[in-house]
Design brief:
The complex is a heterodimer of chains A (270) and B (306).
Chain A: H1 2-28, H2 33-36, H3 49-60, H4 62-93, H5 99-111, H6 118-128, H7 134-138, H8 145-156, H9 160-168, H10 173-181, H11 186-202, H12 205-210, H13 219-225, H14 234-268
Helix pairs in contact in A: 3-14, 4-8, 4-11, 5-8, 8-11, 8-14, 9-10, 11-14, 13-14
Chain B: H1 2-8, H2 10-21, H3 28-54, E1 57-60, E2 63-66, H4 70-76, H5 79-110, H6 118-126, H7 133-143, H8 150-157, H9 169-198, H10 201-209, H11 214-242, H12 246-251, H13 263-273, H14 277-303
Antiparallel strand pairs in B: 1-2
Classes of the chains: A mainly alpha (270), B mainly alpha (306).
Family (chain B): Belongs to the binding-protein-dependent transport system permease family.
Transmembrane segments (chain B): 27-49, 90-111, 123-144, 170-194, 225-245, 277-297
Organism (chain B): Nonomuraea muscovyensis
């Protein structure tokens, strides 16, 4: 009884501390910069969220930025989801020459630091005249090693009999993939989808290099670009940060069971 | 019945059997893995090789001259490189073990049958991992503002003098470490928690029958059970820490006085502020080699044992 109360209350206190930054983000995004840094700092929501968003709109063209981020993340999630799932299926359910070394090669991508590729990728995009384009952001990370790994783990749990049954019934390989493999993979696909969307929505370094003008910026770039000058509008920055964080938090709340169990499927099997 | 007898006939049955193990069209598997492999080759392997080639050139404006190992010699003699490496090393030695221990304790607590409000508490701890690095870096920079941040204000209520977060070398490192811990502890706890839930329950039952107390159960059942994922989280955290970029970029810009300069920031500055692609590539390769060495060492110490 007492141990239960102690354990639960200590974790409740800790989780409250962990959640304070979220609470304060929402509070601060509704105040002007002067109020954000007032003494004492604001602890309850104010009435200036719309002013802050208007200021974002006039300084960085925020609606365009949100549109960029959304389109890039959606396109990326769909394409990378397809590429990773196809590869995961190929590696999980077929035996072919070179399977192990090719898979090992892809997994090398997990440990090679992404910084190694930044300079050449920038030169590639420059040569292709792709700077400031969606494809410059979307294409380089479509074959995401973690995504391929996750899908191979999940699909290998699918019974082989299901596939052979489909083949005996004369199902073509593509149809088999679409109609037999994908439907039972829905929870894993949801996890992969959230992971890919979050990854792209929050990605910073590569967009920072490949997107050179404000009309091409994504949300993290736009927010970071506002920082640093003497009259930095922190109210606006915080409002933009809230706009970036809150949809993801809601998405996560709705789909967290899939997300957590999907990450686990990849993490736990050895 | 007719279908069955037909399939029992010699040629079709044989085909069905071969199809079971290896599908009819031998190109099918290649078609499934080809998009990933081609994209990986074009946007990962090729740049990796190119990066090495670039690291052998001295960049002078638009002029590139072959310089052999000159960039690497310059790197070894560059005090800022060692500062960046040292800063990363401190975070690696202090923040990563603390965070992983915290994540482990958290996972054990979250897995406890005594815990109430499990759903809410778990969700609360996992929320930080959905927040983008730029977003939370900025948020922490504002919360930790030495003059007027919420944290110093709250400390003031408790009678603590304002802490020079972000303006003092040591405190800036601590601030970055705090931000990292806030963001990644829940993520690592998820991995430990999953492993805990996959551990066979009879080990605990056996330990309980033997009269083992909570500490003994943790020491002899939980800890060995977590070993394989400890390696995973350690390797992933090491790679992540060595690549550290977003948090210091947003929170401190590498300052004060290079106290939070990381290899990632230094590489970015050389490549994209000074456009010294050759030197930036040499830094990138040094980073890759360090990650490789640490990965091998970690596998050696933790990997083989069950």
């Amino acid at each position: 009884m007492t141990r239960r109360v102690m354990l639960t209350s200590s974790l409740l206190v800790t989780v409250t501390v962990v959640l304070v930054p979220f609470y304060w983000l929402i509070v601060a995004s509704t105040h002007r910069t002067a109020e954000v840094f007032a003494d004492p700092p604001p602890l309850l929501p104010g009435g200036h969220l719309l002013d802050n968003l208007a200021s974002l709109e006039s300084t960085v063209g925020f609606s365009r930025v949100v549109l960029n981020s959304t389109l890039i993340a959606v396109i990326y999630t769909l394409l990378a989801g397809l590429v990773c799932t196809m590869a995961g299926y190929g590696f999980a359910k077929f035996t072919f020459r070179g399977r192990e070394p090719l898979f090992g090669l892809l997994m090398l991508g997990l440990v090679i630091p992404s910084q190694v590729t930044l300079v050449p990728l920038f030169k590639m995009m420059l040569a292709l005249d792709w700077l400031n384009t969606y494809q410059a952001i979307v294409l380089p990370n479509l074959a995401l090693p973690f995504g391929i790994f996750l899908m191979r783990q999940s699909i290998s749990a699918l019974p082989d009999e299901l596939l052979s049954a489909g083949r005996v019934d004369g199902c073509g390989e593509l149809r088999l993939f679409w109609r037999v493999v994908l439907p039972p993979m829905r929870p894993a696909l949801a996890a992969l989808g959230i992971y890919l969307f979050l990854y792209q929505w929050n990605d910073f370094v590569w967009p920072l290099i490949a997107l050179r003008t404000r009309d091409a910026y994504t949300i993290p770039l736009a927010i970071a670009s506002l920082q640093g000058s003497n009259d930095t509008d922190y109210g606006a920055i915080l409002a933009g940060t809230a706009v970036a964080a809150i949809p993801m938090a809601i998405l996560f709340l709705l789909l967290q069971r899939h997300f957590v169990s999907g990450l686990l499927a990849g993490a736990v099997k050895e | 019945m007719t279908v069955l007898t037909q399939r029992a006939g010699a040629p079709p049955a044989k085909r069905a059997l071969t199809r079971r193990g290896r599908p009819a069209g031998t190109i099918a598997p290649y078609l499934f893995v080809a998009p990933a492999l081609l994209l990986f080759a074009a946007f990962k392997l090729y740049p990796i090789a190119w990066s090495f080639w670039l690291s052998l050139f001295r960049t002078d404006g638009a002029l590139q001259t072959f310089a052999g190992a000159a960039n690497y010699r310059r790197l070894v003699a560059d005090p800022l490189f060692w500062t960046a490496l040292g800063n990363t090393g401190i975070i690696l030695l202090v923040q990563v073990p603390l965070m992983l221990a915290l994540a482990m304790g958290l996972a054990v607590a979250l897995n406890s049958p005594l815990l109430r409000f499990k759903g809410f508490i778990r969700l609360g701890f996992f929320m930080p991992m959905v927040t983008g690095l730029v977003a939370y870096g900025l948020l922490f920079a504002i919360l930790l503002n030495p003059q007027s941040g919420l944290v110093n204000w709250a400390l003031g209520l408790a009678g603590v003098d304002p802490v020079p977060w972000l303006t003092d070398g040591l405190w800036a490192k601590i601030a970055v470490g705090l931000a990292l811990t806030w963001h990644y502890t829940g993520y690592n706890a998820v991995i430990y928690l999953a492993r805990l839930q996959a551990l066979p329950k009879d080990h605990y039952d056996a330990a309980a029958v033997d009269g083992a107390g909570a500490w003994h159960r943790f020491r002899h059942v939980t800890l060995p059970g977590l070993r394989p994922v400890m390696l995973l989280t350690l390797v992933m955290s090491t790679i992540g820490t060595l690549q550290l970029f977003d948090e210091p970029y947003v929170m401190t810009g590498g300052g004060p006085d290079n106290n939070t300069m990381t290899l990632g920031l230094y590489l970015y500055a050389n490549g994209f502020r000074y456009f010294d692609f050759g030197y930036a590539s040499a830094i990138a390769y040094a980073l890759a080699v360090i990650i490789g060495i640490l990965g091998v060492v970690q596998f050696k110490f933790l990997g083989d044992k069950p």
